[in-house]
Design brief:
By secondary structure, the protein is an alpha/beta fold. It is built from 11 helices and 10 strands.
């Protein structure tokens, strides 16, 4: 039987069932689609590395970056237990009072050097505090009070006091104690306003409960306008603080609506004024520890005043009585 004729060299035979050979697939990729199936979108080229990427157009002043890009360098507060101070006046007061070390200051890179900024920079140079120019968006991101006026700084915490420790220090300095004790302050603005009035009226310290109420937050610092730097804020149980004051011979006057008019209540000498919590007034426990109850006379069918307003009126009533006594 004769052998089958040989195929001419160089001519490929018919493709085997199942599609093109591997060599054919390498030469020309074949895409198959099932009936009714959607074609796959073409693949995007892989992103270039940072070294290969071309620099984009420079962002103009005041323009927001495109979505997806890093909009601004993120700020990180310095390590350690530090207080965050927000606002030009707050930072200037901290530098002026010199009761604690300011560690770092961040200033809006577009801030105009007005009198306040110039003063801040001058004080920072004198105190050897580094000042860093940063985008305003970086300050917005870490701001806690809602208002920073282009300046945020970090400082070591203020010295901590107890009622007994404060009384001992006042005795060494030959000063009469004058304290405000406030129960359950929920609104930071009220505590800031009390500290601001306390500074103007010569208050020795403000005492608030350990568990209830606010401490020295950025909002308190901003509203206090320097009051928080100079007037110690004591976190202590009010009953314990009142017991210490009574042993030291300090007169205790509570504030409530049914008391005698404050203009008729003696407020000279060593004094502590006790104010109740916001919205509920003086509790029976605190009222029983007071020597007398004073009130602020009201007209116009007004039921009560804000606790910070009441604290300011009573504190400056003491100032008035001291001046009258000194003029005699």
């Amino acid at each position: 039987m004769s052998a089958p004729p040989r195929k001419p060299p160089g001519r490929p035979g018919p493709p085997k069932r199942g599609g093109p050979t591997a060599g054919d697939r390498e030469q020309r990729p074949v895409r198959r689609f099932e009936p009714g199936a959607r074609p796959r979108p073409p693949q995007r080229p892989p992103p270039r590395s940072e070294d290969e990427a071309a620099p984009g157009p420079e962002r103009g002043r005041g323009e927001r970056p495109s979505r997806g890009a890093a909009p601004f360098p993120r700020l990180r507060s310095p390590s350690g237990d530090l207080d965050q101070l927000e606002g030009r006046n707050v930072v200037v007061e901290a530098l002026l009072r010199k009761r604690r070390k300011v560690v770092r200051i961040c200033l809006d890179e577009r801030a105009k050097e007005d009198d306040k900024v110039s003063r801040l920079l001058e004080l920072a140079v004198a105190a050897r505090v580094p000042v860093e120019r940063v985008p305003r968006e970086s300050l917005d991101e870490i701001c806690e009070s809602g208002v920073h006026n282009g300046v945020i700084a970090w400082a070591v915490p203020l010295p901590a006091y107890s009622t007994q420790g404060l009384l001992s220090e006042l005795e060494r300095e030959g000063k009469e104690p004058f304290l405000l004790l406030v129960d359950e302050i929920s609104y930071e603005q009220n505590l800031g306003a009390i500290l601001r009035s306390a500074l103007g009226a010569g208050v020795s310290a403000v005492v608030v409960p350990t568990q209830r109420g606010k401490g020295l937050t950025p909002v308190v610092h901003r509203v206090a306008m320097g009051g928080a730097e100079m007037v110690p804020l004591i976190r202590e149980g009010l009953s314990s603080s009142l017991a210490t004051l009574r042993r030291a011979g300090v007169r205790i006057v509570g504030a409530d609506m049914d008391g005698r008019p404050c203009f008729d209540v003696p407020m000279t000498g060593p004094l502590a004024i006790v104010l109740g919590g916001e919205g509920k007034g003086l509790t029976h426990t605190l009222r029983d520890r007071c020597d007398e109850i004073a009130s602020v006379p009201l007209s116009g069918e007004l039921e009560s005043l804000n606790v910070s307003v009441t604290a300011g009126i009573l504190a400056f009533e003491r100032v008035r009585q001291l001046r009258v006594e000194a003029a005699r």
